[in-house]
Amino acid sequence: MSIKTISSREVYRNPWTRVREDIIERPGGVRGVYGVIEKDPACIIIPLERTPEGEFVYLVEQYRYTIGKRFKEFPQGGWETEDIVPEELAHGELGEETGLIAGRMTLLNEMWIAYGVMRQRHYLYLAEDLKQGVTERDPEEHDLEIFRVSVAEFEQMILRSEIQDNCTLAAWGAYKVWREHNPRPE
């Protein structure tokens, strides 16, 4: 089943987002309007630390204006440009938000964020062999806080609906499936 685009016009643009309105035609000739939000590629990073005491993840918490609340989530974001090298973006976003430097960065998946309404590619990386460096936050990240939690506590946070970011939840699910098919050598 395919939808034909009859016309398309940009209705809004800022440095981070573009919105377009398309006149479409569905099979059978029925026309309609489709609103599309376009954003440049982004990444989400699972910073995973293994110690003799267990496994830990790093989360960031910040105020999310659209919902008027603070939530914990994995570090994520983009550089407002279409031309990115995904792994460089992942290293950059991880360092910018947490100050962490990853000795190993593994691409786990490529996802689309909310593709029912938005066109944005999201690259999922696992960051390991972590060292602490210096943060270089953007102005909108001024209130960002960093948390190191055990994997067990993180999963309890998911079960208690304390983690509500769909990208973080999808990332963790993808990681769990990936880990099942790529066990760590002992």
Model description:
With 186 residues, the protein is α+β, with helices and mostly antiparallel strands. It folds into two domains: 4-38; 42-181, Nucleoside Triphosphate Pyrophosphohydrolase. The chain is 20% helix and 47% strand. The protein has helices spanning 86-98, 151-159, 166-181; strands at 4-13, 18-25, 31-38, 42-51, 54-64, 69-73, 76-78, 100-112, 118-119, 121-132, 145-150. The strands form two sheets. Strands 4, 5, 6, 7, 8, 10 and 11 form a seven-stranded mixed beta sheet that branches. A four-stranded mixed beta sheet has the order 1-2-3-9, with no helix packed on it. Strand 1 and strand 2 (18-25) form a beta hairpin. The longest helix has 16 residues, at 166-181.
